[in-house]
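Hi Q.,

Before the meeting this afternoon, I wanted you to have the oxa(dethia)-CoA prediction in hand. No need to reply - just skim if you have a minute. The sequence and ligand are here:
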Amino acid sequence: MTYSRILGTGGYLPERVVTNADLEAFVDTSDAWIRERSGIEKRHLVVEGETCCDLAERAARLAIEAAGIAATDLDLIIVATTTPDQYFPSTATILEQRLDIHGCPAFDVQAVCAGFVYALSIADKFIRTGSARHVLVVGSETFSRLLNWEDRGTCVLFGDGAGAVVLGATDEPGIVVTSLHADGAYKEMLQVPGGIGNGDYDNNRVTMKGNEVFKFAVNVLSKLVEDTLAANRLTMADVDWFIPHQANLRIIQAIARKLHLPMERVVVTVADHANTSAASIPLALDTAVRDGRIQRGQLLLLEAIGGGFTWGSALVRY
Ligand code: UT7
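Predicted structure with the ligand bound:
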């Protein structure tokens, strides 16, 4: 049997840092409100001309280096993003060219904040079926470009960044199991209403019913984690590190409470980069790998939710 495992991780945040105090200058908000309601202290934002693929390339190169392979060893590239550089070609193919790789398949996945878990699941299946041996999976976002900077209910919550992993084929899991879900009935709760397809070019900024997203996220994610563990005859005690989507510290704490999980076993990076959508989980993963918290052989549980809604989990033996 062939499985996939994480060979290396990488992360990149744009250089420009915008603190909550900086936001106070042009948004009707306060550092105290943002910290108290979301746990966010700052975010990193791209500057003019800096694109999703620029961030993806930085994270990808670090992940490839950490994996100890050459870029030319990759036989599949998947980029999870809601903010691609262009309508087409995909950001994955632009990244492929930047890495000087020519010929292997490359495509983008669009599942908003759940995009990385979706992409990881797809990559795992390519490896398990023998269709690929080394896969680059990137979550990269320039979400700041989708924000209405006059809507204080959303603009203070998001940031830009990229995270990446290289998966390799192995004899034992690795990625133990992934679980993906979606329900478009909740579209109105979190969306960018405009698009090229519906001809609505004006409504191209994020709208969100924050309270409802909050409640849905806590309920569906804690149930997803419980179901994932039960299906694999595990309990939370077996999990070394819980790596949730980094949207709001209060959502993370509420889920941990429901799961009776001490916060000491939860990786939390939201204070430093806010909600970076598809980049949030690989950024948190890379942080905890590089600072030595996550060790080889440990069991990780990843989960995320995004607009749609889309949501998913991954149980990973690191
Ligand atoms: O990947 C999934 C993406 N999204 C999320 O995970 C977000 C989920 N939702 C949330 O994180 C929270 O609902 C928010 C952080 C968005 C809001 O927190 P809340 O505790 O649910 O606050 P609220 O929406 O109930 O608003 C409370 C008050 C309101 O004022 P009034 O009506 O009580 O006078 C808002 O107008 O806070 C006000 N408010 C703000 N005040 C200062 C809303 N945004 C801000 C702001 N600064 N940025």
